[in-house]
Amino acid sequence: MLESARSRLKAWTVAGIGTAAAIAVAGVLGAFGARHEPLPVLAPASRIDTGEWLLRPLKAYVTAEKYAYGTLLKPGGKALVLELEMTNRTAKSTKDYFDVLQASPATVDPATKPFIVLTRDSTMSPELHPGMPERMAYIWQLPDGAAAPASFGLTVIRKTYKPRDNLYGLPGWFNPTPAGTLTIAVGAGPDSADIQP
């Protein structure tokens, strides 16, 4: 009986030491595995391929006008506007562009989603047709009392096309991942010059 108790105690001790060692090794490997390569820095005037979209930033500015491309701003508020050329690279019309750009939380409240407008007629969130470049405006309401930034950062999100997804076996754009970061200078107003390549 005593020998049996000793055997069990020895087995538990060895198991405990083994578990602690496994946890320690996993922690060390996890710490090294958590290191990520920095994202590529994208040129502000470059054409950026996100899979679904070809983007070309044109200009950014802050406006305190009552309307920005038909979008009503809060009284006394300001909006950060980014104009860019967007080309739909897919085979059908889509408006899957709401998450292709993520503004830096240092400039814009992450909970604030931009209004997205077609600049030529102020249509809100239109579907864009394949192969037709369109000038679009992303409009973020700035926090009350915020000063106009000299520049702001964006993360560009890329998706991958799959002819068949794992769940429904249908084609689509999946796996959004950061493609790179972009820093855009902010001009003095809507009449600011476009970014020159």
Automatic annotation (TrEMBL):
Keywords: Membrane, Transmembrane, Transmembrane helix. The chain crosses the membrane at residues 12-34. This is DUF4352 domain-containing protein.
